User: Fold these one by one.
Assistant:
Number 1:
Amino acid sequence: MTTTTGNTAHNPERSWGEFGEIVTGYDIPVFNEREVRAGAGILFLIGFTGYVIAWTTGFVVPLRGFAVLFLLDMLIRLFVSPRFSPTLALGRVIVYRQRPEFVGAPQKKFAWSLGLGIALTSCFTMGWLASPLWVVLLLCGICMGVLFLETAFGICIGCELQKRFSRTAPQYCPGDSCNFDPPSSRHS
């Protein structure tokens, strides 16, 4: 596994593939986990602000705005290109000077597809169904929880689900979690 430094624009060892980056030393397309976590943190910050406003005042317009932003961001990531995602682009700028930590693109695609499903469900329930506040808060709370786990701890729920339910084993998981077996603890 090759470790590279710097941004894609300044590093000839990195180029964009169909979905993910082609990086010398990696067998599959990958993403910079630092950029992905920064993007998740940005989404979390915006979403959590809307969530708190909705929780404390019952005013859901900021939360609806977040749901639309989240939906558009996931659509861009999955159907246009992740490099054009506003949150990933901002995350890329924020972590520009950090050494990349590459993770497999297939599990991120799976995770972002789940995110798209959550966003579609949330937008549908908030908009067309005009669901009660508690339903909206529950759905958005799930989304906030997933974003928090990703940004704070590097735990990708979509990646974990893909690892458990996919026919092919994932490669290059965050924190090498697909290959790491924690030692058993002994209590005396």
Note: The radius of gyration is 18 Å.
Number 2:
Amino acid sequence: MEFRKAVESDIASIMNIIRQAQEHFKEQGIDQWQNNYPNSETILMDIKNRNGYVLLEGDTIIGTASVSFDGEKTYEHIYNGKWISNDEYVVVHRMAIDPRYKRQGLATAIMEKVEEMCLDKGVHSIKVDTHEENLAMQKLLKKNKFEYCGIIYLEDGSKRIAFEKNL
């Protein structure tokens, strides 16, 4: 399996995975990734900013994530808790796995690749936020030894629960 930077020709495959995740959230009544977010423009910006990544099996894109070392403005204020560290960190957003490949440890594989990227850059913290009803993501984070830190609010005011893992 390969984890590499996404390129513009990957957008259609990435959006196919994203749309399936959006539909799954909608079916579950989870108000995350709705209202045309993330969309192809979001993914294109990830690619242009060199933050977009894909997980491949052979030539098939089976997972995606945005991995940024540029900080996250909405993480500057955390409520009902605190971050574990105030050091440099990587943030993971927009992680999704093709439903045909779920429950095979691929999201964990992406997190392990992110950890390797961090250590290669001398960064020892990973921060992530998710919707409070996205139990699958919370389970993944706990499985990978992330700690609940508190609540953050997105720019549109949406509430998210925040996690951090120190390496």
Note: Strands lie at 2-5, 52-57, 60-68, 90-97, 125-130, 147-153, 159-166.
Number 3:
Amino acid sequence: MTAAYVVMGVSGCGKSKIGQGLAKAISARFFDGDDLHPAENIAKMSRGEPLNDDDRGPWLDKVGEQLAMSSEPTVIACSALKRIYRERIRDKAGKPVTFLYLEGTHEVLSERMKHRDGHFMPAALLDSQLATLEPPGESEDTVKASIDQTPDQVVAEMLEGIRRKQQ
């Protein structure tokens, strides 16, 4: 079965950067989940309005469908904030999906969001994302890493976690 990974966490945690680095390290395809959002979701977030479960549903389906269509190892960056979102992605993927959870403090996340250019998600939505976040539990197929280190160190920690799971 083809490997499927979702780099997850709240906005500003580095999902895209870490996802790209991980995909390169394991010779996988990378997709940014932001590119799968419907235009309505991007417009809503750009206005500073948080998405609700109904808004996220079609987007989560697209993430899972992208994983299902992939015949090669695939990494997708997607917030996957709630357990039900992760279950929905797994259901649509139709295969095992490992979630790679990027953990960070409010202070680190806020600082990162203030300094990024050209992203539709305003820093003002960080609190709503943190309020929505249900960190993955022990029963979920997850690897965790702290974002309070360099991107290369985060990727290395993720790779080590993946290796441990495969043993």
Note: DSSP finds seven helices and five strands in the chain.
Number 4:
Amino acid sequence: MPHMWWVVAASVVVGLVAAYLIWTAGRVERLQSRAELAARALDAHLLRRAAAAAVLAERRFGVELYAAARIALDASPDEREAAENDLTRQLRGVQLDPGDPDCGAVIAASRRLALSRQVHTDLVRDARSARSRPLVRLLRMGRGRQWPRYFDIDDPTLVVPADVPAA
């Protein structure tokens, strides 16, 4: 009977280790899924901003801004960061009036894009941190998915001039 306690203790330890491994695998999977969803949301916000900038350029500002917006809309995934940075530079060079509905749409889209980019960056950092732990790498818990990638662009928030009242 005294040896029975060792069996019970060993069973409890094995159960705790198994529970920890299941919890860790679930956490890695959840973080990876959230990072992928954030990447899709970021892509949607990038497209909305580029479309709003294209509409604004057609109605008011001209060829350079329109070209940058079209390039951002049509860019392949490898060229996307450079195209979005170019669009941000073009938008910063334009005097935007928040009272104008087209300019307001671009400003609002840029603000939402900045928030989406921050959420995406935080989730990618957390997912990469979880996947880089030694136990996770040893047991290859995230092997079915690619490593989440950061989307490196300039801060897309547009500054509204102080002399123009915001709507």
Note: The chain has five helices and no strands.
